[in-house]
Amino acid sequence: MELLVTNYGSFLGKKSERLILKENGKVVNEIPFHDLEQVIIDTPGASLSTDVIRECVEHGVQISFLTPSGKPFARLVSPYLTGTVLTRRQQLMAFCDERSVFLTKLFIEGKLKNQVNVLKYFAKYRKGVDRGLFESVSGLIEQIEQAAGLLHTIHGKCIDDVRAQIMSVEGRAGNLYWEGVGLLTGDKANFAGREHRGAVDPVNSLLNYGYGMLCRQAEGSLILAGLDPFGGFLHVDRPGKLSLVYDFVEEFRQQVVDRVVIAMVNKGIAVEMEEGMLSNTAKRDFSDRIKERLESQEKYQGKKYKLRTIMQSQARRVATFLRGEAKYRPFVGGW
């Protein structure tokens, strides 16, 4: 279970074996620690007691703090979760050899295939009612698939040798993908294209907030797999930048977040904005939809698993690949 705290002045305390959430001095929620997976604090005015922090650490419950736009700026976890030395040593060494190239290409291959499948998922419903739109989206899908094929022509001894080439392919496919999203949402949303920082329109605001949620989930999965979330490959190293998290989520963005956002737009669900940002009500509603999507099942290794479970499994697969124990295959959702 995940607890989202959004109201100014909220207080998190401990009572027996339960976490207590108070607002204006009144208890509004009580949750047993053994039922919690994560606490997300999305308000600048919340406070929490040290005994809550200790209980969360002992129960493996991560506490995340967000900016108003949904970007994580801090996380409290047990220091013992990062104690797997062998995996982290291999992760850092891989940056300087072909493993970094191989893994990065697979991350982006998964991303592009999921872009294709998300476009196919929404376009199939237009085939009988708007043939022209269906054919336009199908044309974009073919171009993305052609771009994905270029990844197999990229070779190098380490990621620094080929980063620009991979990012060029990713960027080309991304432009085509967002053009397709624009066609599928049409006049139901004011979506002129993808905007990252400073976005004030509802669609980009939802995407940015959703990606922030996804990154928190991914970071937890990578830490549990013994990996360093800061030691990425495609995304360059900068102080405080979760480079491996941003690499890893590339193959999950479309199936987890984009599908939810596009569906909301097509269903005409209103998104409440306050001063160019999602309102607390909109955040809670969207957060529930993302959590519901993470609990939904997709085919993986011949069986059906929850997306949340698939992400955890893929993080472990990254670790085993870096240790030379197994191959890595990107996750590709259905359509």
**Largest sheet, described in full?**
4 strands, mixed
* Assembly state (oligomeric): single chain
CATH architecture of the largest domain: Up-down Bundle
- Please mark out the parts with pLDDT under 50 across 5 or more consecutive residues, or reply none: none
Bin the strand percentage.
5-15%
Q: From the alpha carbons, calculate the radius of gyration and give it in angstroms.
A: 21 Å
> What's the number of structural domains?
2
SSE sequence, one letter per element: EEEEEEHEEHHHHHHHEEHEEH
Helical amount among residues, as a percent range?
A: 40-55%
Number of strands: 12
Please give the count of helices: 10
Q: Give the mean pLDDT.
A: 90
The structural class is alpha/beta
- CATH class categorisation of the largest domain: Mainly Alpha
Termini separation comes to 28 Å
CATH fold-type name of the largest domain: Four Helix Bundle (Hemerythrin (Met), subunit A)
Provide the spatial order of strands within the biggest beta sheet: 1-5-7-8
Kindly describe this structure.
The model has no long low-confidence stretch (mean pLDDT 90). With 335 residues, the protein is an alpha/beta fold. It has ten helices and twelve strands. The relative contact order is 0.12. Helix 3 packs parallel to helix 5.
Fold blueprint:
Blueprint: E1 2-5, E2 11-15, E3 18-23, E4 26-32, E5 38-41, E6 47-48, H1 50-58, E7 62-66, E8 72-76, H2 85-94, H3 98-123, H4 131-149, H5 159-185, H6 202-224, H7 243-248, H8 253-266, E9 273-274, E10 277-278, H9 280-295, E11 297-300, E12 303-306, H10 307-322
Parallel strand pairs: 1-5, 2-6, 5-7
Antiparallel strand pairs: 2-3, 3-4, 7-8, 9-10, 11-12
Helix pairs in contact: 3-4, 3-5, 3-8, 4-5, 6-8, 6-9, 6-10
